[in-house]
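Hello again, I could really use a second opinion on something today. I've been staring at a protein lately and its backbone has me curious. Can you walk me through what the tokens say about the fold? Take your time with it, there's no hurry, and the full record follows here:
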Amino acid sequence: MFMNFSPIKAALIVSAGLAASLASSTYAAPAKWRVAVAELQLSDALSASAAKTVKQSSLRTDIEDAIRNGRKFEVVTRNAAKMQAIRDEQKFAQSGLAANDAAATGQLSNAQSLVVVEVQNFSFGRASSKVPNIEHKYRISDYASIELNVQILDTSKGTMTGSFNVEAKASSGTRVANSVGAPSRDILDKALDRAAADLANQLSDTIFPITVIQAKGKQLFVNRGKDGGLKTGDQFVIFRPGEALIDPTTGENLGSAEEEVGTAKVVRVNPKFTVMEVTKGDAALMEPGFILRRPVSGK
């Protein structure tokens, strides 16, 4: 079918197309904060067998995956084997056999924060007991637990910007078996996955605190979604950020004088944001920029 366009309509269509093209070509998403996970550190308190199991586990990879899946950070690897593979690819790119479009030597991205993880306690095993009056029958149950101390280091200054602890456990139900056998690797994986997820959430809360982006009545809309580790019913303390506290001697920003103004609970978790409801405090005073933190244990 033939369509007759006037010169003005044609000009408008061309202009709109050019504008859309320019918008798509000039827009760039904000760069994500880059982090790297250092090689795991093992406490001297670990037994030789526990240290060996941790070294052979997927913990470091689990942590990297959990941070990446949270979508707040760009994770740059510091795994020795992966770094060697990158170096080999760079050499191949410079060999004349390839297009030479790999990252040049010395051009890899630096991490802005380094995540240093020390494994302080670890256990993994199988508890067993004989079934009374029945030969070759045992009640068995598997368990795994891990405790981590995590430090966040600013790589530009060499200073520690935050630290926290992580504890995770997993266990199986008791069952009857013909022999004791070895503990299930699935239980270990569950404990490591839980530790990695908790670490990623606390890392995000440390560098990018949960913040109110909109307040509407008793509802608070915050900048965390399904990947932020929030669950319906989770409780939070609401803080009003105050003025920056500057050390007069060093000029260092020590943070802000926060004022506790209420509490809130999670009522709905969406893909990219979460809705909370004010449960204590004057909802009319809540504003964008207010910070939410998980309650401190024991308070």
Q: What stands out?
A: The chain has a mean pLDDT of 85. The radius of gyration is 26 Å. Helices lie at 7-26, 48-56, 59-69, 80-93, 185-207.
